[in-house]
UniProtKB/TrEMBL annotation:
<dbReference type="Pfam" id="PF13432">
    <property type="entry name" value="TPR_16"/>
</dbReference>
<dbReference type="InterPro" id="IPR011990">
    <property type="entry name" value="TPR-like_helical_dom_sf"/>
</dbReference>
<feature type="repeat" description="TPR">
    <location>
        <begin position="204"/>
        <end position="237"/>
    </location>
</feature>
<dbReference type="Pfam" id="PF14559">
    <property type="entry name" value="TPR_19"/>
</dbReference>
<protein>
    <submittedName>
        <fullName>Uncharacterized protein</fullName>
    </submittedName>
</protein>
<dbReference type="InterPro" id="IPR019734">
    <property type="entry name" value="TPR_rpt"/>
</dbReference>
<dbReference type="InterPro" id="IPR051012">
    <property type="entry name" value="CellSynth/LPSAsmb/PSIAsmb"/>
</dbReference>
<keyword id="KW-0802">TPR repeat</keyword>
<keyword id="KW-0677">Repeat</keyword>
Length: 420
């Protein structure tokens, strides 16, 4: 028995001292073929440094061996030594039998660096040189899947499955295909693949895609069954709760939906969109006080989200919470981050509190975008009317009637002002 095999035997038994001793003896005594095989085995066991030492020793003896260069490049990438990896890869000649392999390793390197266009170019060049190589199809499929270019990924996954291949590198291709179809909204096709996967092979992410697909196809009870299964096994999987709650809503089980989203918040209290969803369901459940509480928590969690700010401000307006609304919106106004709707809301609250100057300023800001919004125009018309600005009142009445010429009450108001 050679030292390489003896070293591996000791490694498998967990006898590391004996492994190290025989590993060193192998480096000195074993043939090049035995050492190359040992390096491959050690890499698969995660002993990258030991594998690297062998490849480097062999490369000194065989400086033109491109297989060694590609393998060392992979090890350099694993060690985050990108410069060394590029050095090895750039030394592989395009005429080499290993050039295609070097292109694929280069693609991995550039992808880890975020240079996705170059990574794609390397893979397409490899495909051009070896168009019938399934490993390249798989690499391209995985690249496009990771880049969220699901339509392109689908083509390669389908090509692989047509050859009878359903798994590569521990990746379930049927699962990938189902998820890809779901991501582009092809839910019928997605379901056809996702339902083929055995439950024992499904992780939470794939189950989520299956539940989401049922939800999108309006099969709400099936969606609930899948989401509930995820919740039981992994309650912190917060993505399920909005869809699970909405599934209950679709089946007219509002109370169950509210309990569901509340449980989601217990597991993920920093998810602002979950707070927003909770507020929407609380509104459907007729629990208006909870609506405000949930929106306040959403705003507290993500204070820079203007859509949440707007929802909370609307709730304050509807519930005559002018002081809270002013406190909420003043800092945003001072930073000049306002949109027209927020200016409108602030104007209403400032007017209610008697700050006519501040209200006027914000009505003017809001008018820039809301000059065809009848609700805004009506509030602004009465504001200017109450504060004696007859000229502005007439101007806005005329704008209003261009939008809604059938509003006879407002037409009568305009006639009275013009004939005053």
């Amino acid at each position: 028995m050679n030292y390489s095999q003896t070293a591996l035997d000791f490694l498998e038994k967990g006898q590391l001292d004996d492994f190290e001793k025989n590993y060193k003896l192998a480096l000195k005594n074993d043939t090049d073929d035995y050492l190359f095989s040992l390096a491959e085995e050690l890499y698969s066991y995660g002993f990258s440094d030991h594998s690297k030492n062998i490849y480097e020793q062999l490369l000194k003896k065989f400086p033109d061996d491109d297989t060694l260069k590609v393998n060392l490049a992979e090890l350099a990438i694993d060690s985050d030594d990108d410069d060394k990896a590029l050095e090895y890869l750039s030394s592989v000649n395009p005429d080499s039998d290993e050039y295609v392999s070097s292109l694929m390793v280069s693609a991995d390197l550039y992808q880890t660096q975020g240079m996705f266009e170059i990574s794609e170019q390397k893979l397409l060049e490899a495909q051009n040189l070896a168009p019938d190589e399934p490993a390249i199809w798989f690499a391209l499929a995985e690249f496009y899947f990771a880049s969220r270019e699901y339509r392109k990924a689908i083509n390669y996954y389908l090509d692989l499955i047509k050859t009878g291949t359903t798994e590569m590198s521990a990746v379930n291709l049927v699962e990938r295909l189902g998820v890809s179809y779901a991501q582009i909204g092809k839910f019928e096709q997605a379901l056809g693949y996702l339902e083929q996967i055995k439950t024992i092979h499904m992780n939470s992410d794939v189950k989520f895609e299956l539940g989401f697909t049922y939800f999108s196809l309006e099969e709400y009870q099936k969606a609930i069954d899948v989401f509930e299964e995820i919740r039981e096994l992994e309650p912190q999987y917060s993505s399920i709760y909005p869809y699970l709650a909405d599934s209950y809503i679709e089946l007219n089980r509002v109370d169950k939906a509210l309990l569901t989203v509340q449980e989601g918040l217990a597991n993920d209290q920093y998810n602002e969109q979950l707070w927003v969803k909770a507020s929407e369901i609380a509104k459907q459940a007729g629990q208006d006080e909870l609506v405000g509480q949930y929106l306040e928590k959403a705003n507290e969690t993500e204070p820079d989200d203007l859509s949440i700010l707007s929802k909370l401000s609307d709730w304050y307006i509807d519930n005559n919470e002018d002081d809270k609304n002013i406190t909420l919106l003043k800092p945003v106004a001072d930073q000049e981050l306002f949109d027209a709707h927020l200016s409108y809301n602030l104007a209403l609250s400032l007017n209610h509190k008697g700050d006519i100057k501040g209200a006027t300023t914000n009505f003017q800001i809001a008018e820039r975008e809301l000059d065809s919004d009848t609700k805004f125009l009506k509030d602004a018309i009465f504001f200017y009317r109450e504060n004696g600005n007859r000229e502005k009142e007439i101007e806005l009445l005329q704008k209003y009637l261009k939008v809604d010429p059938e509003d006879f009450e407002m037409q009568q108001m305009l006639d009275e002002e013009l004939n005053y």
